[in-house]
Design brief:
472 residues; alpha/beta; 16 helices; 17% strand; binds beta-D-glucopyranose
C-alpha cells in the first residue's frame, strides 16, 4: 500500500515554504529571465472548445440535462461555432505572435478526421496540414493532442471508452496522424487528463457520457493507460521524421496529467490516510504506471485492478503536467468513494472555486522531476472574470516555474490555458480563461487582448523574445 506510507510526507509538504514565495518576491522578479532560450513559452487549446461544429459526442451531450433538470452546459447554450478557430486559425496564430509565444498545444478533432467509422475526410486532413504548416512558418512549435475531451459520435455509439474496440480504434487514428503529420509535428500528447475522464465522466457524471458508477470508471481509468500506450506505439511507428531537423528526435511523447495538490482537511489519522490514498489514485498512479508498466487502480470496497502492460513501461518521453489547484481531503462516509475533496471559503480562488497554490506548483514540478524525465506544463491558467487575478496568477506561476528550473527541474515548456475565452465544457461561455477576451455573440469573433496578454508579453520579453505589435 504505497499510498499509506506517504501519508506523513504529505502532511509535511502541506507546510509553508517561507519568504521565497511572498508576494514581494514575486513582484520583484524579472519574469522570463530564468527560462532557457529553447523554452516553449506557449498557450494551450482543444479543438472542441475552440473550432466549432465538431460533430462529436459532446454536441449531443450539450443538448441534455442532469437529473435535477439543469442543462449539461451553462444556460443550455451549445458550443456552436465556439471561437470559430476552424476558419479563424490564422487569427489565433497572429494572436500568438502578438504574445511572443513560440509553442502551441492544440488537438486534432477525431470526429472531423474520421466522421464515420473507417471513412477519412481528406479535406479535414488537408485543413490541419495548412494550419500546422503556418504554425511552423511562424516559428511556433506545435504540441498535438490526439484525444482531448470529445469522441466521434460513432465511437460513442459503440460505448465510447467502454467499447472493447476503443484502444485499437484510437491507435489506428493516431497512426493516421503520424503518417499525415510526422514531418510537421514532433511533440505529441496522447490523451488529456485520464484522471478527469475517470472522475468527471464516470464517477460524478458531469461530462459525457454522464456515468455515475465508480467500478465502471475504474475500468475506464485503466483503459486510458492502455490507450496512451497504444497511441504512443502507433505514433513512434508512423512518425519517423524529425520536423525540427535530424539532431532532434522524430517523436517526443507524453500525456497531459492533471495533478492536484491533495491536502488533508485535518491531522486526524483517517483524513491523513484518505489524502494519501487520494493522492495515489489521482496523481501517482499515472506516473508510476508509465514508469513501470503496472496499472493499479484501487478503490476500497469497490474493486481492484492490477495488470502489467509492457507497451506502457517507459512510454513517456516527458511528463505533461496540467496544474491548476489544491484540494482538501476528508473522509466522508456519505460520499460514494468515502473520500471527499472540497475547497474551503477564504482561500485564494479562481472563478471555478479552485484554490490557487503556487508553492504547490513548485512542489509538483519537483515531484515530477523524481521520475528523471523532462516536464512540459501542458496546462495552467485561471477561469475568472477578474483579469487582475489572472495577471497575478500567471506571474506567480511563472515565478514558481523559474524557481523549479533554478533548482534543477528540467522544464521544457509552459502552455497557458488559454489563448482566448472559449467553450469551457460544463461552464460553456460563462467562464473566461483567455489572455484574449472573445464574445461568442460578436459576428467577427474578435480576439481582444487583456492585461494578462501584456503580462505574457512581458515574460516573453524577459526571455529575450520580441512579441509582434500587430493585433490579431
Ligand atoms: C481541461 C480543459 C479545460 C480546463 C479549464 C482542463 O482540465 O483539460 O479542457 O477547459 O481544464 O477548465
Amino acid at each position: 500500500m504505497t499510498w499509506a506510507v506517504s501519508a506523513l510526507g504529505l502532511l509535511a509538504a502541506a507546510g509553508c515554504r517561507g519568504p521565497e514565495f511572498t508576494q514581494a518576491a514575486i513582484d520583484r522578479a524579472m519574469l522570463g529571465a530564468g527560462l532557457p532560450s529553447t523554452f516553449w513559452l506557449s498557450v494551450a487549446t482543444s479543438a472542441y472548445q475552440t473550432e466549432g461544429n465538431t460533430n462529436s459526442d459532446w454536441e449531443d451531450w450539450e443538448l441534455g440535462k442532469f437529473p435535477d433538470g439543469t442543462p449539461h452546459v451553462y444556460g443550455g447554450i451549445p458550443s456552436g461555432r465556439a471561437d470559430g478557430s476552424w476558419d479563424l486559425w490564422a487569427k489565433d496564430i497572429a494572436a500568438m505572435e502578438y504574445l511572443g509565444a513560440n509553442g502551441y498545444r492544440m488537438s486534432l478533432e477525431w470526429s472531423k478526421l474520421e466522421p464515420q467509422e473507417g471513412q477519412w475526410d481528406e479535406a479535414a486532413f488537408a485543413h490541419y496540414r495548412e494550419q500546422l504548416t503556418a504554425l511552423r512558418k511562424a516559428g511556433i512549435e506545435p504540441l498535438v493532442t490526439v484525444q482531448h475531451i470529445t469522441l466521434p459520435k460513432w465511437v460513442a455509439a459503440h460505448g465510447g471508452w467502454e467499447w472493447d474496440g476503443f484502444v485499437d480504434a484510437l491507435a489506428r487514428h493516431a497512426a493516421k496522424l503520424g503518417e499525415h503529420y510526422g514531418d510537421l509535428v514532433d511533440n505529441w500528447c496522447t490523451i488529456n487528463e485520464p484522471n478527469a475522464i475517470f472522475t468527471v465522466a464516470y464517477v460524478i457524471g458531469r461530462w459525457a457520457p454522464g456515468v455515475t458508477d465508480t467500478a465502471r470508471g475504474m475500468q475506464v481509468y485503466a483503459r486510458t493507460l492502455d490507450a496512451h500506450a497504444a497511441v504512443a506505439k502507433a505514433l513512434r511507428a508512423t512518425d519517423t521524421v524529425a520536423a525540427r531537423g535530424p539532431e532532434h528526435p522524430a517523436t517526443f511523447i507524453g500525456l497531459a496529467h492533471n495533478m492536484v495538490v491533495q491536502q488533508p482537511a485535518s491531522s486526524s489519522p483517517l483524513d491523513l490516510l484518505s489524502t494519501s490514498y487520494g493522492d495515489d489514485v489521482v496523481n501517482e498512479m499515472i506516473l508510476r504506471g508509465a514508469a513501470t508498466g503496472n496499472i493499479d487502480v484501487l478503490m476500497p470496497g469497490q474493486a481492484e485492478i492490477h495488470r502489467f502492460n509492457p507497451d506502457l513501461k517507459g512510454s513517456f518521453d516527458y511528463i505533461g503536467l496540467n496544474y491548476y489547484r489544491r484540494t482538501y481531503v476528508r473522509v466522508d462516509a456519505n460520499w460514494g468513494i468515502a473520500v471527499r475533496s472540497f475547497t474551503p471559503a477564504g482561500d485564494w480562488q479562481t472563478g471555478l472555486g479552485w484554490s490557487i497554490d503556487v508553492e504547490g506548483f513548485y512542489d509538483t514540478l519537483k515531484r515530477c522531476a523524481k521520475y528523471g524525465l523532462p516536464v512540459l506544463v501542458t496546462e495552467n491558467g485561471a477561469a475568472t472574470d477578474d483579469d487582475n487575478l489572472r495577471q497575478q496568477y500567471l506571474r506567480a506561476h511563472i515565478y514558481a516555474l523559474e524557481r523549479a528550473i533554478a533548482d534543477g527541474v528540467d522544464v521544457r515548456g509552459y502552455y497557458h490555458w488559454t489563448l482566448a475565452d472559449n467553450f469551457e465544457l460544463n461552464d460553456g461561455f460563462h467562464q473566461k480563461c483567455g489572455l484574449f477576451s472573445l464574445d461568442p455573440n460578436d459576428p467577427a469573433l474578435t480576439r481582444v487582448p487583456r492585461g494578462s496578454a501584456e503580462t505574457f508579453r512581458e515574460i516573453a520579453r524577459g526571455m529575450g523574445r520580441t512579441p509582434r505589435d500587430v493585433l490579431p
